[in-house]
Fold each of these.
Amino acid sequence: MLWLDLGNTRLKYWLTDDIGQIVSHDAKQHLQAPTELLMGLTDRFERYAPDFIGISSVLGDKLNAQVSDTLSRLNIPFAFVDVDAAHPLMSSAYDATQLGCDRWLQMLGAVDKKKRQCIIGCGTAVTIDLIDHATHLGGYIFPNIYLQRESLFSGTKQITISNGTFDSITQGVNTQDAVHRGILLSIVGAVNEISNRHPNFELIMTGGDANMIAQHVNRPVRIRNDLLLNGLARYFDESKPKI
Ligand SMILES: Nc1ncnc2c1ncn2[C@@H]1O[C@H](COP(=O)(O)OP(=O)(O)OP(=O)(O)O)[C@@H](O)[C@H]1O
Ligand SMILES: CC(C)(CO)[C@@H](O)C(=O)NCCC(=O)O
Ligand SMILES: [K+]
């Protein structure tokens, strides 16, 4: 199988064998040109001759149509994930026509009907979603730390910071530290607030910035970077067109 995750910043793929083991995977910046990037990867994909391609995309209809065109040339059946608010593994109170399928798949990949879970996605956007015994209650969306820094940079005259590290939430005494620490606190503070409001929900984090954020959270956090892939596998296990 070939699994594709078309995100806002990066394209990720996983090639798996018959027993679901990952034989190849990568993540590449697509610079808003995912079809060109895909085109460059088709040789690699063809070499593995997957029998199906399952796709998570948050790129919207226009880019998805281009992706479909590109993949059609491979002569391998493929399908995009459609969010299903009444999926047998998890129901959702969220407007299914709007819910990003990456968010939904991360939840589907984690959901456990015996638990209360809080899924925190740390990608281009930071998302926090609450699941109570396999019912998605809803959630929150934040710009990630880099988007926040860009918006401060572009919306102010005296803040000219465009680099530096996010490593502390202690108050800063210069602009560089105040910006980085303030931004990190906005995310960590939100996670801690959710954690306080929902003490019985297990905190699960995924995505590139998960470790950086988790370090400052005042309760144990489980880091799981397999959630989206696991969600894709669970989804297509239920709904894969019979071929
Ligand atoms: N090699 C890398 N390239 C880009 N970002 C990375 C890399 N390693 C870690 N990161 C961190 O991962 C974060 C992005 O997380 P993630 O990979 O989950 O999302 P993304 O793929 O960039 O976003 P999206 O899924 O929306 O395309 C970045 O903010 C960055 O700090
Ligand atoms: C929130 C992001 C950007 C996270 O990648 C994505 O899931 C998305 O574009 N979602 C659409 C909006 C929503 O989920 O309500
Ligand atoms: K947008």
Amino acid sequence: MAAAAALSPLSGALLRRRFPLHHRRRLLAVVAVSPEAPAPTPTSPLPPPPSSPPRKGYFPKRNEILELTCDGLAFKGKGVCKVDGSNFVLLCDGALPGERILARVSRIRRGAFAEATKLRTLEPHHDAVDAPCPLAADCGGCKTQSLTYAAQIRHKYLQVRELLVNFGKFDPVELESSEPDSILKPIVPCDEIFRYRNKMEFSFGTKRWVQREWKEEKDEGAVKEEKIEGGGYSLGLHAPGFFDKVLHVEKCLLQSEPADKVLEVVQETWMDPALGLTPYDVHKHVGFLKHLMIRTGRNVSSGASEVMVNFVTSLYKPELLEPLVKKITKIPEVVSIMNNVNTSVGNTSVGEEEYTLYGKPTITEMLRGLTFQISANSFFQTNTKQADVLYKLIGDSAGLKGDGSEIILDLFCGTGTIGLTLARRAKHVYGYEVVPEAIADAQNNAKLNGISNATFVQGDLNKINETFGKEFPKPDIIISDPNRPGMHMKLIKWLLEVKAPRVVYVSCNPATCARDLDYLCHGVEDKDLKGCYKLKTVIPVDMFPHTPHIECICVLELC
Ligand SMILES: C[S@@+](CC[C@H](N)C(=O)[O-])C[C@H]1O[C@@H](n2cnc3c(N)ncnc32)[C@H](O)[C@@H]1O
């Protein structure tokens, strides 16, 4: 069961609550898939195996050094690895499909599977490439940068297929029958695989986490961790699994070039002792600088990039930020510098108070011909260009007649972007979302674009009761775009009762997506609910190259 936790973004008790037993068992089966063709025969001699080859029924010991072959990727991007001659699964961060690695067993998970730490590559995958970012091997942000992009998206597609079969209980033959009848469509890749993110959030840290260095102890044939923690302040991304250690980042190939310029200027300046700037210490709860958020939007008249810089600090002391502000404003693309003051001991970037230090408090961006205003804390799709592709596909999947006669229900609407892009072809759009600020943004966005046939309502879709659905007409099309935990059983039950002719389920988590599709199509036996939908299409869309994330657009039609 624990292997299921590794595959899904949920873990432990949460996973047990969200996934019934039969689904957790199936998830284990997905972890064990082996979709990767074997790597070609090695051309260079390999070091001698650290121990004799394991037999069938083999069970690893903690700290054992093993040669492993990575078969595929689990949902969070961990490599699914096995030792030769055994089916025992070891999940290993940084292992790429097809790669042979030397690894040390770090954790045995209730006897079901183990976790291993990659020590080094013995034989790279035939799809391996040199990662352009020198930090790729250590930064949790880009786990698959050293795999060709073609291989990355092939693995994402395979993962969606395995989850739909093993977890959603869909027939693999039907899923992949020949075009145009196949349910599972080819994955839509990104045109731009670098500089695609419009928002990055860096953290200030008191502990600098340095790249791992490994020392080979030739006598023992073993490899030892030399050091993982360095001294000095840092500004960068959290080391995978650590909230208090920050990998120092000078440049990030995922953000825009102007955003990289901002990062460079801040890095050059903030550690100057004369400025008296200190990073916030998450253990002692002292220090000033918490996060640096950089967002890139577009001026809707000129099309030029516009950048917002947001300093999240523990106190309001603008005079301390002044030298940084002076330097950053020399970058022509910077049109906004904000200061969110977060006095809580928590590590979030949303402040209780927000101040404009320079320029305007919002930037703008365009999606599907509409203008959106983005403030420091508003949610906006992070890959603008691919969001345009995603929304076009969602629009096509909605299958609107275009005569303005249909009612659209946009569940988990965020700032209203999906509903608003469809509103001109619909009679009315009703959006539901739990975050009040997002609802306010959605209402502003409707006004900004002159859309009057959209109503946005704040509400928790996990807590709906029998009154839900009384305040709007029966929907013709339901768009549901939940976050990673997927839909609550109350909402599934409501969807099965209201029986909208078409549901477009947009998901960023193929595991919970496959579970919810199973419920909607095949019913929920222990709740005595009958499924009433047929799965028509699933389109995987890659929004985040080099990461394990994958978005899916699924179309369901009433049987
Ligand atoms: C994946 S985002 C989708 C946002 C939007 N559809 C878009 O494309 O920008 C999921 C949204 O669901 C909202 N959400 C999460 N849990 C919710 C709940 N229980 N009830 C209502 N909305 C919720 C989140 O705040 C977030 O805005």
Amino acid sequence: MTTQQIPVVVLAGFLGAGKTTLLNHVLRSARGTRIGVMVNDFGDIGIDAMTVAGQVGSTVSLGNGCLCCAVDASELDEYLEVLARPASRLDVIVIEASGLAEPQELVRMVLASENERIVYGGLVQVVDAAEFSATRQRHPETDRHLPIADLVVVNKADRVSEDELRDVHETVRGLAGKAVVVDARHGRIDPELLFDRVVPEGEIEGQMSIEDILYGEDGEDAPHAHPHAEYETVSLAAAAPLDPRRLMAFLDSRPEGLYRIKGFVDFGAADPANRYTVHAVGRFLRFYPEPWPEGEERLTQLVLIGSGVDAAGLRKELASCELNGPQDAPDEHGMWGVLRYVQRTEEEPDES
Ligand SMILES: Nc1nc2c(ncn2[C@@H]2O[C@H](COP(=O)(O)OP(=O)(O)OP(=O)(O)O)[C@@H](O)[C@H]2O)c(=O)[nH]1
């Protein structure tokens, strides 16, 4: 009996590009394909793991830290072992890299895995169409990530004009070599694009060979540039609800370097029914209210990622948003500032 190897697809892209959104779309529209998910979050609180649509028993979170910096592939192997055991009956495994990971390192680690039940299934690189130029300027290494991709998704097509989208698409196509380049809104790609791109043995589609990736183009295992060396992460978990006005004042004046915020906010009596998922990517800010999951502890959990930021100052500012007991109740219009950033149409259910 021959055992089918499970393809392991690496899903990468800069902070906030839309990896989790794409992954959730794929999970929702998988139609019978059994997908195992490995999430590599950056920050003490695993926000991504919490926002990936649950497939019980087939999601593992790699927690704080960057997988691409692990000294060897043993931690990855440990998790692959869990996901790839025959009882899981998975058809494909997707590793969502942290937004600061070096995708080449992740690919190397999958290729180096000793697990015989898995095979490298390709690299998907998600690009934020609206932030692409700015990200390239700040992180020129972005250009190195595209040629090793098998599929590049130019996401957030809705956030740019048609001309801008064409420009980004053309630039990406120029950098991405033979990779397939598709445009998307809210990560809505055909899931088949992800699963059918199993790489033929000995060859990675695109310009680089497996040897190039394993040993570096010049045959040397050169140390990789770390975008996250310059980034700092601040995590906050607060039991007290936040005051909407104070939080908005904080968000409206957030420093330039604070590129990414994600998490859940409890506004207490100002909206007892809903938990507010918050996302900031660059100057983009959105709240997504949804009923608190049953039995879930009412906590605010935030992860802030930025470069050149004053972590202690941010912590202090966030702490000052917490409500101090009943005498500190938010006023009745307090939520207006938050509701300006709620856009329900963005998370429409899939057409499929
Ligand atoms: N307008 C718009 N917003 C999008 C699109 N795709 C994702 N978003 C929003 O962008 C924000 C970040 O999306 P995520 O999917 O969390 O991004 P990510 O790449 O997983 O983020 P990190 O894990 O922090 O690197 C969220 O508010 C998403 O709803 C899109 O195509 N258009």
